[in-house]
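The freezer alarm interrupted the setup, so I double-checked each line after restarting. Inputs confirmed:
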Amino acid sequence: MKILLAKSAGFCFGVKRATNMAFEAAGGCRHICSLGPIIHSPQVVEKLADEGVQVVDRVEDITQDNVIIRSHGITAGELDQLASKSLSIIDATCPFVKKAQQHAASLSRDGYHLVLVGEAEHPEVQGIVSFARSAPVTVVATPEDAEKLPRCSKLGVIAQTTQSLGNFQQIVALCLRKSKEVRVFNTICDATSVRQEEAREIASKVELMLVIGGFNSANTTRLAVICKELQPNTQHLETADDIEPAWFEGISSIGITAGASTPAWLIEQVVKKVERFSGTDSE
Amino acid sequence: MKILLAKSAGFCFGVKRATNMAFEAAGGCRHICSLGPIIHSPQVVEKLADEGVQVVDRVEDITQDNVIIRSHGITAGELDQLASKSLSIIDATCPFVKKAQQHAASLSRDGYHLVLVGEAEHPEVQGIVSFARSAPVTVVATPEDAEKLPRCSKLGVIAQTTQSLGNFQQIVALCLRKSKEVRVFNTICDATSVRQEEAREIASKVELMLVIGGFNSANTTRLAVICKELQPNTQHLETADDIEPAWFEGISSIGITAGASTPAWLIEQVVKKVERFSGTDSE
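Predicted 3D structure, all chains:
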């Protein structure tokens, strides 16, 4: 039995940073909450809850003295609301997301119709677009959406940090038909494409592919979809408890990767259990 | 016999404007020259020579008191040279080319590495890039050229006015891999794509396609190439004298278009001769 573990599996820079900030802050005080889950890993959020970090969904419901802003960021409106309360704010927004928020604000200030390539429902996207306060905004998920963009004098284009470059390229190309000026900031985080590339490589070599990460994590879900295209025998799991012995029957090679919000200890538990089932060590 | 004449055949806005300016200027004075041919039509240039407009290739060779700047524009260096002479300057640069020159200058001033999508040898391209005096410039003709672009902090992308949108889109998409910021001004003139689209439509319907225009005209040559892809029986001709009777043997439908620098009277002469050969009227 051969086990291939992706080098890029697990926490990205922004998630690692946010998680560290949250655990550090929790160690120092008890009156603390996070606005929305810090990262899209129910297991990490649970561990933080054990340390006293409660998740609060709306600013008006905060009763604690300290609030942590999650890695995906929050909206400009929520930021204003927080500022009007006498709270201590720990901003764990991923620096790459913050950069996208800043581009949204400055493109909008400069009169560009903002096109954000991403998923309209994702909290990161809702946060970013809220910073474009001075000009129209359109969230575009697919080239078909881009075809429907109105003609306008200047378009500013940015992306959700976890977008695929190919989709972004296609949409930018279509924007050239809609406006004489198209100003693009490529806000895609390389970690996503590196992780996806490695997952593709591994999935194409193995008989079973395991993708570990929150069922509420968009990047993990996309990772599982990508793997499934190359290896239909792909399983998306959150923890080692989700593993089923039947998966390993007649299988001689297994690939393992994990989303950006999956902690190292969860990956290790899965790897150990897989090794036990298969009676082998991972590479 | 059916003859289809393209509605978009012949002079574009910029060429018509330059030619009118040249004939008007020639009527008023005799000490006049143009720096390079006004437009890429040897027949129009000859007519202007009859009116006294001589073609001079280098600023240092100008002996006349008045100089006309051709529709394709000239380089920033030539403009400086002209300004240092006590000459009257008639600027017949196409306003769309001038706009591209201005974008080249301002993008370069703002520190963008300029990417000009076009043919490096074309006088319009040589003119435009010369205005980018403050940052590096690369002329890119194909996606393969774009792959070789260096990584840099910000790229400014513009196009030769007669470029195809498809090539421009592909190159812009590749630029997104080379820089975090890509600022694009779509300087392609719609007249070119409208003309090419109509030529494609007609060429796909006829048994013989005629493309009229200077052999030194890049846009006419490209038009002939586009037509040949759809109808291998395509002829590129400059004047009615180039027509050969053998072309019409066994042919029941003929399409006619002309480049942006082909005057209406040249098109009319060709149409008349084709009608004579085929014994029919054009549509």
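Quick read of the result. The two ends of chain B are 11 Å apart (CA to CA).
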